[in-house]
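Design a sequence for this backbone.
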């Protein structure tokens, strides 16, 4: 900030430049030297440069002149930076951070305390102590720990349509049944006599 040459802080200056760009779309009609009537699109606002107020209330809340106020300031051939709140100036920023932060020693150099430090006592409130946990509003009362399917949209595994499952599928009879899975290959080394491996031969009772 010490290298900055502007009157305002960089971010505040950037925000003010945006308001200056919007001010070109405003039409100013003076009432007095401090009171103006500003027309922006279909809005009609009142700006008071002496009290630093505008009908949009942006100037009062932020401290930066709005586009309506900037249009009035330009109408009076003045600088908009002079109407920004002092807290946004470079001088106020440097004054706020002029003091230094004192260094802090590590925990090894802290003074030793002889008295024992215990945590605060646990205060038990009135009434019966709660034993059961607070249940979720969508938890199934018959199966603790399991949530209900309320609000879950089901998808049929047969017709791939939503709103029902395969038990209540209306197209259950028209959809062909899926092919049977292929038989698994027998485990073990094949025998020379053509019989299945010993691992698949059932044991004698």
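Sequence:
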């Amino acid at each position: 900030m010490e290298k900055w040459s502007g009157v305002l802080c960089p971010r505040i200056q950037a925000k003010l430049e945006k308001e200056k760009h919007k001010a070109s779309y405003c039409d100013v009609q003076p009432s007095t030297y401090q009171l103006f009537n500003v027309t922006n699109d279909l809005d009609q606002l009142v700006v008071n440069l002496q009290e630093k107020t505008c009908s949009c209330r942006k100037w009062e809340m932020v401290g930066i002149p709005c586009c309506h106020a900037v249009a009035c300031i330009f109408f009076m051939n003045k600088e908009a930076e002079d109407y920004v709140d002092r807290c946004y100036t470079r001088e106020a920023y440097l004054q706020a951070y002029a003091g230094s932060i004192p260094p802090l020693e590590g925990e090894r150099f802290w003074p030793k305390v002889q008295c024992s430090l215990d945590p605060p006592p646990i205060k038990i409130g009135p009434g019966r102590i709660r034993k059961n946990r607070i249940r979720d509003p969508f938890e199934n009362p018959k199966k603790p720990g399991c949530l209900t399917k309320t609000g879950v949209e089901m998808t049929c595994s047969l017709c791939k349509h939503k709103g029902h499952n395969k038990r209540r599928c209306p197209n259950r009879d028209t959809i062909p049944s899926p092919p049977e899975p292929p038989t698994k290959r027998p485990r073990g080394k094949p025998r020379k006599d053509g019989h299945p491996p010993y691992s698949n031969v059932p044991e004698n009772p």
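The beta strands are 26-30, 35-40, 43-48, 53-54.
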